[in-house]
Design brief:
This protein has 362 residues and is an alpha/beta fold. The chain folds into two domains: 193 residues, Medium-chain alcohol dehydrogenases, catalytic domain (Quinone Oxidoreductase, Chain A, domain 1, Alpha-Beta Complex), CATH 3.90.180.10; 138 residues, Rossmann fold, CATH 3.40.50. It is 26% helix and 26% strand. It has ten helices and 20 strands. The strands form four sheets. Strands 4, 6, 7, 11, 12, 19 and 20 form a seven-stranded mixed beta sheet that branches. Helix 4 runs parallel beside helix 5 and helix 7 runs parallel beside helix 8. The two termini are 16 Å apart.
């Protein structure tokens, strides 16, 4: 199969021929139809997130099942699936407690004595997030393959695999936004816009979208924001406080993963408010937050993949899209073939696009 292979930080991925193995007992072989480009992949490319090489990046894919292993019972050949990076065992304390996104089971990977799923010649190729969706095919653990209705367009479905479920779920599941509450969303990329969408669906009364790129205003308002704030972190703090009468917000959702914006999310809170960190920080990022602020019952928490229960929430998000309540069409700024994947990441660096989708029939 053809795949975009990451070999060195700061260098473009190369389109190479990669050999993919047959499915093991609990594995599924998926023909990839579409995959979204995510900032987590960019963090690997620019060295902010360590990752072995050679490696196939990508973790926001959807496609059609081609083969299944002997012990797979959840999907069958011909099924349309979203491939999520949430792989779970189904029997640990997190799974039994309804928190499959926390599992990170080693069962989703092959053991050291087993042949690699992917190789170039005799060299094993790593799968980023245990998926590796920048390729014509994926071989993954069955728990990450979520069957969906066949009338769902796969170039929209792929976005639900990561960015949409992360942002939407952070608002609805992790933060638990309630009707009438005030929400600030920092960062209006694919994840942030989905968080705005989620806050709107949850019934938030006031949704303030914050981004340094002024052109994101139109995106934010389309997805359900009631106000848009642009400028430095200091300007964003001042303007948000003006919009809330000096009180602050009930919920701040930080969807970038930078120190200054994480600290801003906490400063935006009213007494009793909660800041939820959705963006992926670079390793080594530390925070400077006054401990005294916690005495006002302000809370700072993280979110893993929007706290999704993949088998339940992903098909529900598909249904919301088909009902016109989840905005996916508006999220796609550009479609590219696999041969233009590096150009897609150059686009991402400008901050002007919401999401680029790589199409495998292009």
């Amino acid at each position: 199969m053809k795949a975009a292979v990451f070999r060195e930080v700061g260098h473009p991925m190369l389109i190479e021929d990669v050999t993919i193995d047959n499915p093991g007992p609990r594995e599924v072989l998926v023909r990839v139809s579409a995959v979204g480009l995510c900032h987590s992949d960019l963090h690997v490319l620019d060295g902010g997130l360590p990752n072995p090489s050679p490696s196939i990046l990508g973790h926001e894919g959807a496609g059609i099942v081609e083969k299944v292993g002997s012990e797979v019972h959840t999907v069958k050949p011909g099924d349309h699936v979203i491939v999520s990076l949430v792989f779970y065992c189904g029997h640990c304390e997190h799974c039994n407690g309804g928190h499959v996104a926390r599992c990170f089971t080693p069962e989703a990977e092959r053991g050291p004595k087993e042949p690699p799923r992917l190789r170039i010649g005799t060299q094993a190729v790593h799968q980023f997030c245990r998926t590796g969706s920048f390729a014509e095919q994926m071989l993954v653990h069955e728990s990450g393959c979520i069957p969906i209705r066949r009338d769902m367009p796969l170039d929209r479905a792929c976005l639900i695999a990561c960015g949409v479920s992360t942002g939407f779920g952070a608002a609805v599941n992790t933060a638990g936004v309630r009707p009438g509450q005030t929400v600030a969303v920092i960062g209006c990329g694919g994840v942030g816009l989905s968080a705005v969408n989620g806050a709107r669906e949850a019934g938030a009364g006031h949704i303030i979208a914050i981004d340094v790129v002024p052109s994101k205003r139109e995106f934010a308002m389309t997805f359900g924001a009631t106000d848009f704030v642009s400028g430095s972190t200091e300007e964003a703090l001042q303007k948000t406080m003006e919009l809330t009468g000096g009180k602050g917000v009930d919920h701040a959702l930080e969807c970038i993963g930078r120190q200054d914006t994480i600290e801003l999310s906490f400063k935006l809170l009213k007494k009793g408010g909660t800041a939820t960190i959705v963006g992926v920080p670079k390793l080594g990022t530390t925070l400077n937050i006054s401990a005294f602020s916690f005495l006002q019952e302000r809370k700072l928490q993280g979110s893993i993949m929007g706290s999704v229960r993949t088998a339940i929430d992903l098909p529900n998000l598909v249904d919301l899209y088909m009902q016109g309540r989840l905005k996916l069409d508006e999220l796609i700024s550009k479609r590219r073939p696999l041969s233009e994947i590096n150009e897609g990441f150059e686009d991402m660096k400008t901050g002007a696009l919401a999401r680029t989708v790589v199409m495998f029939d292009a």
